[in-house]
Write a structure and sequence with these properties.
Helix 11 packs across helix 14. This protein has a 5-stranded mixed beta sheet with strand order 12-11-10-9-13, with helices on both faces. Among the domains are: 163 residues, no CATH class; 100 residues, no CATH class. The protein is of the alpha/beta class and 391 residues long.
């Protein structure tokens, strides 16, 4: 009881009593109050909508804002606490809030499709960037994204689905308490400012840090090879930058494993799924003879580019295709794939796999069983880059 009235339903109190309050009767039920009083103890306080400028700031930061962002936009500490209490934002770390209340583990392509995202599979890039921005917001304005977090902000594909966010702060700063991100300290660390205004380590340094971290993971070879292939495919590093990468891993724990991943990298893989499929075949001792084999018609038009191909001793081919969910599920794409499949069948056998098969490393065993008894030997014959489809 408070001042002779009923206990307030608002735990943050205080409440205001309606002039015509009758104990046990809602204001909607009284004749003198046709419009209910939102401050009445029998009703919850209606939360105010989040201002558009806060939403715009959060959208640019994967829906994350820190306390400094909110105070800069005019929010008091009590207002932030009320927003969290009403479920309008979620506290994900000390001083960091997420305006998207859906837990990260539930943010899947199907969830993105219900939210009408133009590209539902981009939810993985969203989660990677959110992880990296979380480390920066948690560590303060002097933090620099490092390792896998920096690679996510650089836009590198093939990162692990989940990884601990990491950031570095100057050595002179006091270590923060109760943080969810991995912390590095530095005396002199070079930083690059991205167009989005986020500070990250340069790409050669970030790649060295990320691969050295993955060297201790049980299944770190899959994301590591996918990232190296993506950088080679897009030609993101020059020869001098690769030398800098080599200098960063020299005499570091895990450097021999990282050098093996670098040696396995190729510019011919166009997606992480193709990198995982190639790794599976290498493990099964049946590496493809050709990646991205081009098949042309008699007119010179390109009919297909096959992900992986093996040239058999009898002159026929074994093709392996990794189907993407987005491109190959459209009706027009299905019809085009059917025509393409019929043409490839005249050259040999076609095996089709999904990205899940590639991630689980099932493709190598399936291809190995298919190659048994054919007399195929790795690297036995010279495989052309372009072949002509039969008329």
């Amino acid at each position: 009881m408070r001042n002779g009235g009923p206990k307030s339903l608002n735990p943050r109190g205080p409440w205001v009593r309606s002039p015509d309050y009758t104990p046990g009767v809602s204001p909607c039920e009284t004749q003198n109050s046709p419009i209910p009083n939102i401050w009445h103890p029998c009703r919850m306080r209606v939360p105010q909508a989040i201002p558009p400028e806060v939403i715009a700031r959060a959208r640019a930061q994967e829906w994350l804002v820190c306390g400094a962002d909110l105070r800069e936009l005019g929010f008091a500490r009590s207002s932030i606490a009320r927003k969290v209490e009403h479920g309008q934002m979620v506290r994900v770390a000390r001083g960091v809030y997420d305006l998207e209340v859906t837990p990260p583990k539930d943010r899947t392509p199907s969830w993105a499709q219900t939210r009408r995202w133009p590209k539902p599979t981009s939810v993985y890039q969203h989660l990677h960037r959110r992880n990296a921005i979380l480390a920066l917001k948690e560590r303060g304005p002097s933090a620099i994204a490092t390792g896998l977090s920096a690679l996510a902000l650089h836009g590198i594909q093939g990162l692990p689905h989940e990884f601990p966010p990491s950031a570095a702060t100057p050595l002179r700063e006091r270590r923060a308490r109760a943080c969810v991100s991995r912390h590095r300290r530095y005396r002199n660390l070079e930083a690059t400012m991205l167009p989005s205004g986020l500070p990250v380590t340069p790409l050669p340094d970030a790649l060295a840090q990320g691969l050295l971290d993955l060297a201790s993971w049980p299944s770190g070879d899959r994301p590591a090879l996918a990232m190296v292939d993506d950088i080679l495919h897009r030609d993101l590093l020059t020869a001098s930058e690769w030398n800098r990468f080599e200098a960063r891993i020299r005499r570091r724990r895990g450097a021999p494993v990282v050098r093996q991943w670098r040696a396995l990298g190729t510019a011919s893989c166009e997606s992480p799924a193709e990198s995982w499929a190639r790794l599976s075949c290498i493990r099964s001792h049946c590496p493809p003879d050709r990646l991205q084999l081009v098949i042309v018609l008699s007119t010179g038009a390109i009919l297909a580019r096959v992900d992986m191909a093996w040239l058999l001793p009898d002159g026929t081919w074994l093709f392996a295709e990794i189907d993407g969910a987005e491109y190959h599920s459209a009706p027009r794409a299905v019809y085009a794939d059917r025509q393409r499949q019929n043409a490839l069948m005249r050259l040999g056998k076609v095996m089709r796999f999904t990205g899940k098969d590639a991630w689980n490393l099932r493709i190598g065993a399936a291809v190995g069983r298919e190659l048994e008894g054919t007399g195929w030997v790795p690297g036995a014959g010279k495989c052309p880059e372009v072949i002509r489809a039969p008329d």
